[in-house]
Amino acid sequence: MINEKKVIELPRTIMTFNINMSLIPKEMNISKEQLSLAFEIIYDKEYLFFCKTKEEFRHWAKIIGLGCKTYGVFCFPLEAVVKKSRWRVPNIIYRCIGFLKTHDAINVEGIFRMNARVGRIEEMKKMADDDEDIHFDEKDTCYLATSLLKAYLRSMVEPLIPYEYFEYYIQLPEGNVDSKKFINSLTESHQDTLWYIGEFLMEVVKNKEVNKMDETNLATCFGLVFCDNPPSLGLTELEFTKKAIQSFEFLLRNFKYAFSDVKKRNIAQGIEPPQYPAFQPLVHLPFDILIEQIKMELRDIKKSRRMSATYLTDKSTRRKKVGGSLSIASTTSAVRKEYLKTKYKKSNGSFADLSLSSKFGNNRPS
Fold first, then answer.
1. Distance CA 21, CA 17 (A)
2. 38-42/46-50 β-pairing
3. How many domains, the chain?
4. I need a labelling partner for 169 at 20 to 30 A (CA). Which of 42, 187, 267, 297 fits?
5. Are 313 and 333 in contact (CB under 8 A)?
6. Beta strand pairing status for 318-322 and 325-329?
7. Per the domain annotation, does 1 fall within a domain?
């Protein structure tokens, strides 16, 4: 305990958005909206966290999600999901796009406009949240893959276009921000995921005479799932919708230039995703068993630290004669405390340097 407050070591915890409803007293009358802003931490017992706002939820879910073990992929930070995927892009994304490629989706009219059966979508979401390598059945359709893809993108605790970049994102159509510099300023996980999805969308556009999905139609389908309305900008929903769609359409129409560096890097690293299975399913143990395992680990660590401190104290103990009597003067070595260090990959540039200037101007070739 530090200052009489509970200390939770995040690397030893498990985070989940599948709330154990039995922990909530009936008299609390928790609404669906409140549950959508809640998450659970498994440590020496189950801890429920309820956030007051969507922004607060995103903030804590991102910080904690990057520092602990996670059950599932929906809602979690992109970097945490990528770590599980055994590739540079989330498993759920490269499997959905892989299915679309092998099932001639570019020839399906209105491919991203139609939705699949809700029940089947939920089954696939459960598969992903059970940390299995996504696989489709023979009877599944392209509409299921597109529906699952969009459902995952909507769930992301941080959109592919993060809040702090949105102000620059909506300036792309006006020419105030260079699109390549903008893309290169994102983290590599965001760059790679945007490129991988966009690369397939460009194949769809090439066949727009058949599928009826040009840049404008695709922007209407995807514009609002790649970003969210940052409260700090004070945009109305109508303003946000218009700007988000226009910006994504601009990105599609300038895709080759904007993602040229990202594509070059991905080609060098290999653009074929892992063969199935990319990984073995993560075994989700019951929470009560996990709690007991964590308790045992904590007891072992505490014992180990205590023994280490005793050893270091004994080793440094020396006798000194003081006033004709003997006293023990000991120098106790402090036992190091573990701190979580969340590492963020450095981006190739700063989003603060995107506006037009002599150094960071829009130098796109005409």
1. 11
2. antiparallel
3. 2
4. 267
5. yes
6. antiparallel
7. yes
